[in-house]
Amino acid sequence: MKVAIVGYGKMGKLIRREALGLGHEVVAVIDPVAQDPEVTDSHLDASTLNGCTVAIDFTHPSVVVDNIVLYARLGIPAVIGTTGWYDQVAQVREAIDEQSCSIIYSGNFSLGVALFFQVVKYASHLFGKSGLYDPFIQETHHAQKADSPSGTAVMLAQMVLDNTPDKTSIYSDTLHRRREEDEIHVASVRGGSVPGTHTVTFDSQDDTIELTHRARSREGFATGALKAASWITDGRKGFFTLDAMLEDVFLQRESVQ
Question: What is the pTM of this model?
Answer without folding.
Answer: 0.76
